[in-house]
Design brief:
Chain B: Belongs to the MIP18 family. The complex is a heterodimer. By secondary structure, chain A is an all-beta fold. Helix content of chain A is 3%, strand content 56%. Chain A has a single domain (2-355), classed as YVTN repeat-like/Quinoprotein amine dehydrogenase (Methylamine Dehydrogenase, Chain H). Chain A has one helix and 29 strands. Chain B has eight helices and three strands, in the order H-H-H-H-E-E-H-E-H-H-H. Classes of the chains: A mainly beta, B mainly alpha.
Chain lengths: 356, 240
């Protein structure tokens, strides 16, 4: 199995922090967050890649750390949330209905600059750096986390204009680095500088911590759920400063403690990374897991048999952003073909092909 | 009450600090380029009095003379993908890979960074509360620096530096560590991974400080904090 570079796109001279991908009827949009405060939107096409939009760089006063596309509730618009070190979260939107109609008549219309994403809302509440933003699968809840040790859950409307804070979760004892929602359930995982992962669920009209996953021996940088429709079959992959990749598995509701869940660490993946591992992505399509980190290596792991908990490294690409650190890896589905996108401290976004 | 947290630190004189051996006998040895050697001889002929700045900075002079090419600087405006020339349709991303392996350095001799270089970069940083350098206060010490570097710009390299705060509860340890990190990140090539640790047993909250100093996100955020960056910039200026 091999990983080969399909396209390298140099966007700025400073850290690329975060990527998020969304397929729409008119384009495959990859949002890019970076230290230069300007969110960039790339259009990833099978026959090339185009810089579609650069959002207003004056909205955030510090680095943009995280971006997330809202799962669509309305196919005529796209909405993006962005969290910044300036403690705010911005919401951007764009009407794409006109593009969809245009595309049917004239296929090669150049959309760049035609209509830009507009600022829809600014959400304030966190005391300091926002580290991550994530939408629930129905797009109605937005989770944000910060160095202020809290996770906030915001409820929004159809349009995504108004945000009401429904819960502030303060159980982590240190910075919260990352939040991610389960792809089909309203279950949230938060990763922290306190070396733990916490799982959160709505219970009796409030959000409660239902499990604490301990085992990592350093900051947990990110986590990702396995795609599953079965409510009893839930797994989470996590990566940490301790250079390990762990798989956690939901076992059962805890009978003795109302609402609490029992989780176990099912496996620790074969060691690839030497230093901090910053990002993990679990493919909803192939079930493969991808990780990237400080050592610049992009690694792919495959479970020998689905659900078995036995994993093997099937490919690795060293120095995938040269000698720079790799902060983020995402699976992207470009017109049916699964590819990988990575973002590094070199300011580049790289798109990767892989062969199994 | 003293205005200092530690008002009586041990201080080394500047000439007691470790440095590269300098020897007039060896001034003209190990010189790669004949041309550079000639230029050096000429410069020394012009001014060879004991007060000569040239003689005092002989090491710097060597470095300047040995620089064959100035390093390539990347302009903020060049080479970046902009909206106006955003059409990248020239190649298929679904086809075979088109890897660009950087070959511009091939053929150049490897020039690994050594511990003395790391010492020179960090020992002259100013202490945040005393008008003295980290070297003079023995916060940075030559034997506590580790470097793993083969000099190849395409290989990863590593620096581990263990610092000794002047007192075990020194609240400025984090700031000193941040100053060292900022200096090294700015001065060293991107292949370096820098680890800054408090020397074992020198501080009450060793682990907390270590964790903070080596968290890239915390450091990046600190570098966007104007006030903090102001204090760090002061430390990085030469001590007066």
């Amino acid at each position: 199995m091999s990983i080969t570079l399909a396209k390298g796109i140099k966007l700025q001279n400073d850290k690329t922090w975060s990527l998020d991908y969304k397929r729409t009827p008119y384009a495959n949009l990859l949002a890019v967050a970076s230290t230069d405060r300007k969110i960039k939107i790339l259009n990833i096409k099978p026959n090339g890649t185009k810089l579609e939009d650069v959002l207003d760089g004056t909205v955030h006063r510090k680095a943009v750390r995280s971006v997330a596309w809202r799962p669509n509730t309305d196919i005529n618009t796209v909405t993006l949330a962005a969290g910044s070190f300036d403690a705010t979260v911005s919401i951007w939107t764009k009407d794409i209905a006109s593009h969809v109609a245009e595309d049917e008549e004239e296929e090669d219309t150049d959309m760049a600059g035609e209509s830009e994403m507009d600022l829809l809302a600014i959400i304030e509440g966190h005391e300091n750096e926002v580290k991550c933003v994530a939408w629930s699968q129905d797009g109605m809840l937005l989770a944000t986390c910060s160095r202020d040790k809290s996770v906030w859950i915001w409820e929004t409307d159809e349009m995504g204009e108004e945000y009401e804070c429904v819960s502030v979760l303060q159980e982590h004892s240190q910075d919260v680095k990352h939040v991610v929602w389960h792809p089909t359930m309203n279950l949230l995982a938060s990763s922290s500088y306190d070396d733990t992962i916490r799982l959160w669920k709505e219970y009796d009209d409030d959000w409660e911590c239902v499990a604490v996953l301990t085992g990592h021996e350093g900051t947990v940088w990110s986590s990702d759920f396995e795609a599953s429709d079965n409510k009893l079959d839930i797994r989470l992959a996590s990566v940490s400063d301790d250079s390990a990749v762990r798989i956690w598995k939901y076992i059962e509701e805890d009978d003795e403690n109302d609402g609490q869940q029992v989780w176990i660490c099912q496996s620790i993946l074969p060691k690839v990374h030497h230093n901090q591992v910053y990002s993990v992505a679990w493919s909803p399509k192939s079930g493969l897991i991808a990780t990237s980190g400080s050592d610049g290596t992009l690694a792919l792991y495959k479970e020998t048999e689905k659900g078995s908990g036995t994993w093997e490294v099937v490919a690795q690409k060293e120095l995938c952003h040269g000698v720079y650190e790799v902060n983020i890896v995402k699976w992207i589905d470009v017109d049916g073909q699964e590819l990988l996108a990575t973002g590094g401290d070199d300011g580049s976004v790289n798109i990767w092909n892989f062969k199994i | 009450m003293s205005e200092y947290l530690n008002d009586n630190p041990d201080v080394l004189e500047v000439d007691e600090l470790p440095s590269r051996k300098e020897d007039n006998e060896q001034l003209f040895e190990n010189f790669g380029s004949k041309e550079a050697l000639e230029r050096k001889k000429l410069l020394l002929k012009i001014d060879h009095s004991p007060t000569s700045q040239v003689l005092h900075n002989i090491e710097l002079l060597d470095k300047l003379l040995l620089l064959n090419n100035t390093p390539d600087l990347i302009s903020d405006t060049e080479n970046l993908l902009t909206e106006s020339d955003s059409d990248l349709n020239d190649e298929s991303i679904l086809g075979a890979g088109n890897e660009n392996i950087c070959e511009e350095y091939l053929g150049e001799p490897a020039d690994p960074v050594d511990v003395q270089e790391i010492y020179d970069l960090t020992a002259h940083i100013c202490d945040p509360e005393h008008p003295l350098t980290l070297g003079q206060l023995s916060i940075v010490n030559l034997p506590d620096i580790e470097v793993h570097d083969d000099g190849n710009p395409d290989h990863l390299a590593e620096v581990v530096i263990r610092i000794t705060p002047t007192i075990t509860h020194c609240s400025l340890a984090t700031l000193i560590g941040l100053g060292i990190r900022v200096r090294l990140e700015r001065a060293l090539p991107p292949r370096f991974r820098i680890t800054i640790l408090l020397k074992k047993g020198t501080h009450n909250s060793e682990q907390q400080v270590n964790k903070q100093l080596n968290d890239k996100e915390r450091v990046a955020a600190a570098c966007e904090n104007e006030q903090l960056l102001g204090v760090v910039s002061k430390m990085l200026q030469t001590c007066k």
